[in-house]
Amino acid sequence: MLRNALGKTFRFLGYTVQYGCIAHCAFEYLGGIVVCSGPSMEPTIQNSDIVFSENLSRHFYCIRKGDIVIAKSPNDPKSNICKRVIGLEGDKVCTSNPSDFLKSHSYVPKGHVWLEGDNLRNSTDSRCYGPVPYGLIRGRICFKIWPLTDFGFLRASPNGHRFLDD
């Protein structure tokens, strides 16, 4: 009887570990559902919108200008940020705020990206903390899930003029 109970317990633990590993790999490499908070990506993503983030792009270095990504915050590694990629390594980016009279520019260093929120007046982004290491990117947002009225792919950046082509 004890042998039977131990056998069932070890089988249960084995299945738990097995399914836990499968779930970990799915969330780490394939993607997951993310609830976005804060006003920095308005009007594209509102506070409490639910989006799907895929993680394969970051592993295959397929992140492009204009993509919206989830990344670890350079200021607080315990939290994630949701921002749009404005520049990739080697790109020239405008580092000043839109209201600044004199515009300053810089180049994104190797292994980094330049991230900005769509709501330029209410966003803490690369203009504050500088270029973000590519390794902090967790995934690329594919489409919005909730609210259902906005279900689908995300719209283009309202700040398209911030993308510089040199």
TrEMBL record:
EC number(s) recorded for this UniProt protein: 3.4.21.-
Aminoacyl-tRNA synthetase among keywords: no
Subcellular location: Mitochondrion inner membrane
NCBIfam families named in the record: sigpep_I_bact
GO biological process: protein processing involved in protein targeting to mitochondrion; signal peptide processing
Organism: Podargus strigoides
Gene that this sequence comes from: Immp1l
GO MF: serine-type endopeptidase activity
Domain Peptidase S26 residue range list: 16-97, 103-146
Upper lineage: Eukaryota, Metazoa, Chordata, Craniata, Vertebrata
Ribosomal protein listed as a keyword: no
Assembly with partners or alone: Heterodimer of 2 subunits, IMMPL1 and IMMPL2.
InterPro entries attached to this UniProt entry: LexA/Signal_pep-like_sf, Mito_IMP1_subunit, Pept_S26A_signal_pept_1, Peptidase_S26
Assigned protein family: Belongs to the peptidase S26 family. IMP1 subfamily.
Keywords: Hydrolase, Membrane, Mitochondrion, Mitochondrion inner membrane, Protease
Catalytic-site annotation from UniProt: 40, 83
Protein name: Mitochondrial inner membrane protease subunit
Gene3D superfamilies the record matches: Umud Fragment, subunit A (2.10.109.10)
GO CC terms in record: mitochondrial inner membrane peptidase complex
